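Figure S4 source data
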Amino acid sequence: FYQPGTYPFLKATIQFYSDKSVLENILKEIKEQERKKQEEEQKRLQELERLRQEEEQKKQEEEKTRQEQLKLQEEERLKKAKEEEYKLRTIQSGSFRLHIDQHNRFHIYYGEQELTKGTGINIGMLSEGNWYSSCDSQIEIKRPSTHKMLIQLIHNKLPLIYSWQIDFKPEGIVTWDVDISFKESLRIDQNNAYLFLSKSYNNWIASPEQGSFPSSFGPNWQRMNACENNSEFIGLYSSLEEFPDIICKNSKDSKSLLIIQNTDTNLSSRTLEFQIEDNKEFYQPGTYPFFKAEIQFYSDKSVLENILKKIREKERQKQEEERKKQEEE
C-alpha cells in the first residue's frame, strides 16, 4: 500500500549499437564464462568421483584385508582344533603310535609303518543272527594321562555302550580292558575281539604250535591254530625289520579262546582273535565286564626268536620222550 505522496520509481539505460560486433563480443564473454563455469563444475564433479572411488577402493581393500585376517584366524583355529583332536585320538609310546581316525578305526604304527589293517582293533557281536561291529558307534574319548585312553562307543544299532580302556605303556605293552553297559535286555550269541594286522606278517605262533600263512587269500577265513587246547599266547612275526613281532595273551581274569586266522580276499589281513567265552545268552540292563587282554610289541626280534627256540626244544624233547616210550612198548 502506498500512501499519498511522490516516490522514485525507475531508472534505466537503453543502449543502441549500430556496430553489431560490440554485442557479439559481449555474448562471447558470457559464453566463455559459462564454459569455464561448466568446466570447473565438471572438474569438481570428477574430483568428487575420484575421491569417492578412492574411498570405495580403500573400503574394499580394508574389507579384503579383514576377510583375509578372518580366514587366517579361522584356518589357525581349525588347525589348532585339528591338532587337539589328533592329540586326543593319539597315544605315542616311543616308536609306537595308536591313532583313532574319524571312522572309529584303530591304527597302530611303528615309526611311519602301519602295522594294522582295516578297522585295526574291533569287537564283533553276533545277536539274533546278525553281526555288529563296534566301529558302528558314536565315540567319546577322554585322556586321563598321556599313555591312557578312555573310550565310550555308543552303538548306533544296538542298545549298548562299550567302555574301553587302552593303556599303551612305554615298553611296548598295550592293555585293553572292555566293559559293556546294556540299556535294555539283549540276546548275545557270540562275542569276538579282533586285532587286524598287515599281510606282511607271514608267520604265526600259538604256543606250542607255529607255522606260516598261505601266500594268498581265498574267499573264506581260514583258521591257522588248532582248537583242541587254548594257547598260553598267540602271536605274529615278519621277516621285515619294520614290522615288530606281536604277542597277544589273556589277562589273568580273562578266559577268552585265542585264535589266529587268515581273512578272506576282501580284508586281506591276518587276525589275532579273542573269542569271548560266556555262558550268558540274554543280558539284562546293567554294566558287565567283557574281557581283558594284553598285546606286546617286540621291536627286538631276538626276544620272540628265543621264545620260539624254547618252544622247539620242548617239542623236540616231547617227541624224543614219545619215541622212547614207543620203543619200550
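Figure S5 source data
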Amino acid sequence: TVPKGHIRYCQTRVPPFPLAHDNPPDAAFFRRAEDFACKGAKFGMIVAATRFYSQEEDSRQVKERIFSRYRPRLVINLSQVHRDLFPNAEQPALVLISENTPTAATDTFTLCSVERSSSFKKHGAFEIGPESVRVLPSLDVATSIDALKVASWGTARDWALVQRLSRFHSLQRFLGEAGLEVHQGYIRGNRRLSTPRKMLEHLELKKTAVHHGWIDLTDLQKFKEPKLEAARSPSIYRAPLLVLARTLIGNRVVCSYTTTNLVYSNLFSGIPLGGSDDRVARYLNGVLNSSVVNYFLFLTSPVWGVERYEVRKAEWMRLPIPALPAQSADRSEE
C-alpha cells in the first residue's frame, strides 16, 4: 500500500524526518515549514501537547528533532485550559514558536503555562503570572524525558528532586531482581474466547474496593464473564498480590495488597508475589503509596495533568525505587 502523503513526505526527506506513533501529521508540518522559510525565519504552530510529554521512544525522537533542528523561542502550555479553547479537541494543546535555525548548545527558550484563574468567568481572559514563566535550556529539554513536564507544572526544586530520585533503579528492575513480574489484567473487548474455569472461581476486583494499601473484599462477587477478548494466564490472579491502579483515588496513585485471589481488568496491573520474601510486599506497599512517589509520578507522567487523570503501567515501571534497607549498603551514599 502507498503511505499517506505526509508519511511519504517525511520518509523521503534527507535525512528522513521521524514521526510519532500512529504517524500523526504534526512533525510533517514543521518539516514542511522549513521548505518555505528562509534561514532565521520564525513560524508558530498549535500542536498536540501529548507527544511533547510522551515517554515513548518515537515521540521522544520527534521532540528531539524539532527542538534541535528548529531553535525554539517560545512554548505555551495550554493543557489546563484546552477545554475552554478547543472544546471538541481530543488532546490538549501546546503552542510552539520556532526559528528556522539549528539550536546551539547555549540557546534557551521561554516556557509559559496558562492556568484557568478564578476570575476567568468575569473577563474571559487567560492570565499568565510571573510564576508561570520560565527560561529553559533548549537542548536539555530536547533530550530529557521529563524536563518539559516538570518545568510546566513544577519548580527548580522539583526538577532537582526528580533528578535525585532518578538515580535509583526502576521498579521494573527492582521486581526483576526479586524474581517478580507485572501483568495487566483481562480485556473484555470482543469476547470471542472462553474464560478459563479457574478465573470463574475467583472474586472480581472493582474500583470501589481499592484503597491505599488494602482491598475491601466485603461486596466483591465471583467473576461471571463467560467470554473475553484476552483472559491472561490464571496464574496472574493468584494471591498474594500487589495491585497497581491506573485511575487515581482522591487525586493519588494507589497500590493495594491482598492475600485473596482476585480477577482484575486492564484498569489494574498486578504483581503476583508467590513465595517471595514478605518484606518485599510490605516495603513496596508502603513506598508505592507514599507522597514522594505520588508527586514524582505527577511530575513525570505524560498523561496525568496533561490529558487524563491516570497513571499507566509504563509510568509505574520506570518509577525509581530505593533498594530494600538490608540490601542498600553499597548505595548508602544515595
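The first strand starts at residue 42 and ends at 48. The chain has 13 helices and 14 strands.
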